[in-house]
Amino acid sequence: MAGEIHDDAFGPELRSLKRNNQNLGERNKRLAELLKSSRDRLNDLYVKVEELGEPASTYGIYLAPAARDGEAEVHTSGRRMRLKVSPLVDPAALVPGTLVRLGEGTVVVEACGFTPTGQIATMVERIGDDRAVVADQQGAESLVMLAEPLLDTTRAGDTVLVNASAGYAFERIQKTEVNQLSLDEIPDVTYADIGGLSSQIETIQDSVELPFSHPELYTAYDLTPPKGLLLYGPPGCGKTLIAKAVANSLSQRIGDGGQAHFINVKGPELLNKFVGETERRIRLIFERARELAAGGNPVIVFFDEMESIFRTRGSGVSSDMETTVVPQLLTEIDGVEDIANVIVIGATNREELIDPAILRPGRLDIKIRVSRPNKEEAKDILARYITEAIPLAESRETLIDATVAAMFAPRPFVRLELVDGTAEVLHYSDFVSGAMIANVVDRAKKLAIKDHISGVSTAGVTADHLRQAVRDEQDESEDMPNTANPDEWARITGRHGRRVVAAEVIG
Length: 507
What we know:
Blueprint: H1 11-52, E1 58-65, E2 71-76, E3 79-84, E4 99-102, E5 108-111, E6 119-127, E7 131-135, E8 141-146, E9 159-163, E10 168-173, H2 177-181, E11 182-184, H3 198-213, H4 215-220, E12 228-232, H5 239-254, E13 261-265, H6 267-270, H7 277-293, E14 299-303, H8 322-335, E15 342-348, H9 356-359, E16 366-369, H10 375-385, H11 396-407, E17 412-418, E18 423-427, H12 434-454, H13 463-475, H14 487-492, E19 500-505
Parallel strand pairs: 8-10, 12-15, 12-16, 13-14, 14-15
Antiparallel strand pairs: 1-2, 1-4, 2-3, 4-5, 6-7, 6-9, 7-8, 9-10, 11-13, 17-18, 17-19
């Protein structure tokens, strides 16, 4: 029909226009998204610029909520202040003792948890549920609040992290004062490692281990286990080894996942120049022992070189410190009567210096002398050190016999003049000890190594090496007492009797 327009006439153009329109729409959409992203980034920049213009934040220690809602007691800048709390801060995060950040206008704007740094102090005692007395390195005491993590985990003797100005303790440091003074671990020493002391070991097993292996028999016979024992004798003869082996043996006997505890007290570190500090440390050690024993497992409290701490009161040998330290130990030993699992073992080579009140029955009930080894006992000790695991040029028996023969060969060392005018000659064999035997074997091993390196011999340890080692050990007897105190010669050999008035070294 004339004048009529058909869509087909504009078909290609129309489709082209539609495509262009669609493309423009997509471009507009991307442009809008880009503009929105740019606007967001610009807003972020505005926020950061504004933050840069904010005043510096300060920090404080949250103490407690204030009487009015939205406020808190905070220790900051060395003083206690009542501050506003931002509504954006979670109230559950505000725990007494936590670190808080203060924003503009000194408003609490963030809870930052507990502070990781501060002063180190020792907890002296708990006061109520949430307070404690602590002492700094100089011994000055102060009363502090306990932060929430410490309420159920701390005890006297623990090392804690404190903020003295805020008056809060925040964290328990793992290394406690008791751990600094003692070793609370089971030694790996067994009776098989100890030679020449079979009779002493048997006595200890009968006295200490039987009550734990057969408690029903002790109950049936109404027999009370001993509270403690004293190992005494010349130095280097195995007293400390025996104490460690007892702890190990008890752990093996318990079984069923149980474990004995061995508290090896370091005597010199126990002493403290401040009045009352040594006594307090003794209390802490026994408090720790009672805690461990409460679980039903045996606890051994071992005092090595016991005479250095618990000397006879009024002897004038040391300061007046023993007049308070000894009674403290007596009190603690008497206090373990209700806990049969605590055993006190003391070791000394100067038993005459220990206060007699400690040694009476009911305290250190059992006294065992650890003497110097004879020839047979020396062979038993040598068998622990001369083994098939090391290179040997000759049989073990031959080497052991040669070593013992050299050790106990007559060789005068010192002449003693007694108070009655008689004289006695001591030989090097009178000073043989387990420690000396171990040192002799080590010397022989070194001589064998030198021969191996130089090409003299690669066969291993020989009898000549051991004989030379014995001679070298005897020649280096510089640790023996000097002649200024003659009685020391008789004491170190374990001899008791007439007084020595003079000594002459003749070796």
